[in-house]
């Protein structure tokens, strides 16, 4: 029987045939070995980029659905471990790293248009949900039925975990936007301080330099605020919050009703 690595590395085979062979192998429902060599081989294929994404998607999809990845030493791997291996492989062999990694984990299946996060929610795999969102998975992507992952969360435990990790992601993106906004503020602050010091050294130009210092500070702050609110991270954070807030209200309402039913 061919191993997973042999299937991935096989040359002279069409895209569809390789994907079919990979699916047939995975359908045997066995524990699959995951290491950097596997992902490196999948990402190094000199073919259409989609086949690389297809193969990585199928492997990760299987790990999420069956929770059955193992190491070279036959030790069980968590999905967090699998994502770490993929991340390290991409960082070592792929350029630009972040852009390609983001594309990989947000790849959509051709038939259902589900992402890996959709599958994690369907499988009620809260560990995979956490790992994917921490690695930058987009929780707002819609599948063929126009549903986001949050729309597919049926079990209470899964929905609460997804909401929590989406909130964490939104908070992280806001912090990133805040850090980027300092790029605009810091030069203005330094320029303002410099002009303020200059006004003390040159008394005859005190009014002019003080005016310029205030203007530099105000301009710096204005640029920083603009960078913050117009940044992609901030916009994504707001979109995540807009998706989560109605669900939070629903959860609170359901818990209130349940508590009343118990007390009644």
From TrEMBL:
Say yes or no: keyword Cytoplasm present: no
Ranges occupied by ANK repeats: 112-144
Q: Which InterPro entries match?
A: Ankyrin_rpt, Ankyrin_rpt-contain_sf
Please report a single Pfam family linked to this protein.
Ank
List the keywords (alphabetical). Answer: ANK repeat, Membrane, Transmembrane, Transmembrane helix
Q: Does the keyword Transmembrane helix apply?
A: yes
Write out the transmembrane intervals: 181-200, 206-230
Q: Which SUPFAM superfamilies match?
A: Ankyrin repeat
Report what the protein is called: Jg19758 protein
Q: What is the lineage of its organism?
A: Eukaryota, Metazoa, Ecdysozoa, Arthropoda, Hexapoda
């Amino acid at each position: 029987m061919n191993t997973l690595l042999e299937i991935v590395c096989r040359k002279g085979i069409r895209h569809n045939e390789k994907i079919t062979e990979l699916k047939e192998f995975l359908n045997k429902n066995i524990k699959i070995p995951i290491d950097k060599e596997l992902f490196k081989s999948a990402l190094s294929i000199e073919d259409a980029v989609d086949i690389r994404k297809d193969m990585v998607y199928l492997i990760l999809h299987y790990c999420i659905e069956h929770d059955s990845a193992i190491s070279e030493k036959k030790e069980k791997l968590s999905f967090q471990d699998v994502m770490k291996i993929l991340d390290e492989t991409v960082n070592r062999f792929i350029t630009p790293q972040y852009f390609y990694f983001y594309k990989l984990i947000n790849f959509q299946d051709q038939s259902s248009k589900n992402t890996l996060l959709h599958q994690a929610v369907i499988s009620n795999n809260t560990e995979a949900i956490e790992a994917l969102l921490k690695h930058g998975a987009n929780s707002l992507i819609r599948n063929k039925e126009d549903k986001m992952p949050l729309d597919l969360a049926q079990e209470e435990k899964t929905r609460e975990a997804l909401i929590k990790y989406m909130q964490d992601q939104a908070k992280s993106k806001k912090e990133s936007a805040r850090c980027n906004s300092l790029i605009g503020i810091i030069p203005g602050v330094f320029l303002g301080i410099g002009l303020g010091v200059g006004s003390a050294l040159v008394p005859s130009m005190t009014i002019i330099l003080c005016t310029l210092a205030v203007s530099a500070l105000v301009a710096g702050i204005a640029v920083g605020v603009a960078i913050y609110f117009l940044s992609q991270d901030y916009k994504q954070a707001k979109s995540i919050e807009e998706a989560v807030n109605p669900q939070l209200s629903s959860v609170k309402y359901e818990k209130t009703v349940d508590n009343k039913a118990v007390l009644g």
